[in-house]
Backbone:
């Protein structure tokens, strides 16, 4: 059974919310493993990897630097350089936050790399959402996949013209500056082309819009979406109530 785009969104959003609210090591690692396995099974792992690295690498490093070196509650000191102390408690806190953040980012990226934009726009329009807003929302969700795909084509074109990208993070970062300018220019040009095409298709006009694309939905998936949303709300409520319950 093919997933409705709203079901994919509900599953990704609810999983991210529940994982963040639960603050559980086993749950975070399970979600990370499941998202990685689904990306491999869906054939999007190679396209997702650069986006995952760009988003998570600085965030995880900042967490390790902030909490691993400067954690006031840390008592078990491993290494110390003046005011900076690497403590077991600080590393545990940083890694737990990093795992929780990684799980949420992975499921949201998996959704953005696998969801169908035309199906999502048609599904939102069928529910009364304005066509222009539906397209903007769908384009935002798929912005990273579009940039990753465009960057891959630019890199292939430059390599065909003689650009040699040697292994190593520093060399790749240096080569990226040669790809950034054509990437930005192509995205700006595409935005203008899309705006003209959307205007020609009546996206800016008032009144009822029709669609040639019909997205099949089922009662089971509607119930699944309701359960996912309620589970996310319950997880948030439990998280908010927990400190109060512990203080009483």
Residues:
């Amino acid at each position: 059974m093919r997933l409705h785009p709203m079901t994919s969104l509900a599953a990704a959003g609810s999983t991210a919310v529940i994982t963040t609210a639960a603050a559980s090591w086993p749950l975070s690692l399970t979600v990370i493993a499941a998202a990685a396995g689904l990306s491999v099974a869906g054939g999007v792992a190679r396209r997702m990897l650069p986006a995952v690295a760009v988003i998570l690498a600085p965030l995880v490093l900042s967490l390790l630097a902030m909490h691993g070196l400067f954690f006031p509650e840390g008592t078990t000191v491993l290494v110390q350089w003046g005011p900076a102390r690497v403590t077991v408690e600080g590393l545990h806190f940083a890694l737990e936050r990093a795992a929780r953040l990684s799980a949420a980012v992975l499921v949201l990226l998996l959704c953005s790399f696998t969801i169908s934009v035309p199906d999502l726009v048609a599904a939102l329009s069928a529910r009364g959402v304005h066509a222009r807003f539906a397209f903007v929302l769908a384009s935002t969700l798929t912005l990273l996949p579009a940039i990753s795909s465009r960057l891959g084509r630019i890199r292939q074109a430059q390599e065909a013209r003689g650009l040699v990208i040697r292994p190593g993070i520093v060399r790749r970062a240096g080569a990226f500056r040669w790809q950034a300018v054509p990437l930005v220019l192509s995205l700006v040009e595409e935005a203008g082309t899309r705006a003209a095409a959307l205007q020609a298709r009546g996206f800016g006009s008032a009144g009822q819009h029709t669609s040639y694309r019909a997205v099949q939905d089922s009662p089971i998936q509607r119930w699944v979406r309701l359960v996912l949303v309620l589970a996310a709300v319950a997880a948030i409520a439990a998280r908010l109530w927990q400190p109060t319950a512990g203080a009483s």
About this structure: The longest strand covers residues 77-81. Residues 244-248 have pLDDT under 50 and may be disordered. Residues 50 and 141 are 16 Å apart (CA to CA). The first helix runs from residue 5 to 22.
